[in-house]
Amino acid sequence: MIKTKIQKAIAIASIAALAATTLGSTFAANIGTASINGGASSNVVWDDTFPGTATGTVTGIVVSAQVLPTLNMVVSTWAIDLWILTAGLEANGSLDIEVGTNAANGVSISARSWSGGLTNTTDNVLQINDLTVDGIAESYTFASSALAIDSTVAGFTTTGDLAALEVNNNTTEHTIYSTNKPELDDATNADVAFTVAATSNAQTAAGDYEDIITFTVTGNF
Q1: Is residue 65 domain-resident?
Q2: Residue 111 sits in the same domain as residue 76
Q3: Helices in the chain by DSSP H: which ranges?
Q4: Is 64 inside a domain boundary?
Q5: Once rounded to an integer, what is the mean pLDDT over residues 106-134?
Q6: Mind listing the pLDDT tens digit for each residue in 102-112?
Q7: Residues ≥6 apart with Cβ < 8 Å to 82
């Protein structure tokens, strides 16, 4: 009888221990969930001890933001006056341009002539350029040169050196400045100098001549 009671006691203890182990490892270890509303979830795992800890992990939370694009261009003056032309002698004048942008791939600036040369204000057939439509070949050119570099972005490069190029049409966009990275808008240090030059001929008709130039800046965002 004693032996039987002992055996029963041992059996009950074994069952209790097994139950505790089973409950601890199968049920108690996962005590909840960590989840994203409408998305992924994972178990919150308890270490089965008191005092103890329970840990759950949620990953995949996206943080987003947007930086709006900026692009500014300032031309230093509205007019370039070449004054009185002397036959055979080049006259030139210039202006400065400052650009600021956060365009990831930089900017380009182009210049386009409205009339394809310096055009006589009373007879638009008469032009100062290298064409001979009016029977006389003269010269009218655009040129540019890079000035201060006002970007602190690593790898920033600039091309702002357009050799004197004859201008004789009103369709070509002549690139006078280009970059590959963002740059600051620096009011005291311009980025590029733009130069216009003209040379008349001894037969160039007397009169007033004029051209209008359009500058176009393009940001490569």
Answers
A1: no
A2: yes
A3: 2-22
A4: no
A5: 98
A6: 999 999 999 99
A7: 91, 92, 93, 118, 196, 197, 198
Helix (H, G, I), strand (E, B) or coil at 168: coil
CATH number at residue 162: 2.60.40
141 neighbors 166 (Cβ within 8 angstroms): yes
Contacts of 63 (CB under 8 A, 6+ apart): none
Q: So what's the pLDDT on residue 28?
A: 55
Residue 182 contacts residue 102 (beta carbons within 8 Å):
yes
Q: Which residues, at least 6 apart from 14, have a Cβ–Cβ distance to it below 8 Å? A: none
Place of tokens 């006056």: 81
Instruction: Assign 40 a pLDDT band (cuts: 50, 70, 90).
Output: confident
Q: What is the pLDDT of residue 38?
A: 79
Global confidence as pTM: 0.81
Same structural domain for residues 126 and 166?
Answer: yes
Query: What residue numbers bound the domain in which 116 lies?
Result: 71-219
- Contact yes or no for 136/203 (Cβ under 8 A): yes
Residues in the chain: 221
Domain shared by 46 and 84, yes or no: no
pLDDT, mean of residues 197-214: 98
Write the pLDDT tens digit of every residue in 78-108.
999 999 999 999 999 999 999 999 999 999 9
Structural domain tally of the chain? 2
For 24, phi then psi, to 5°, come to -65, -45
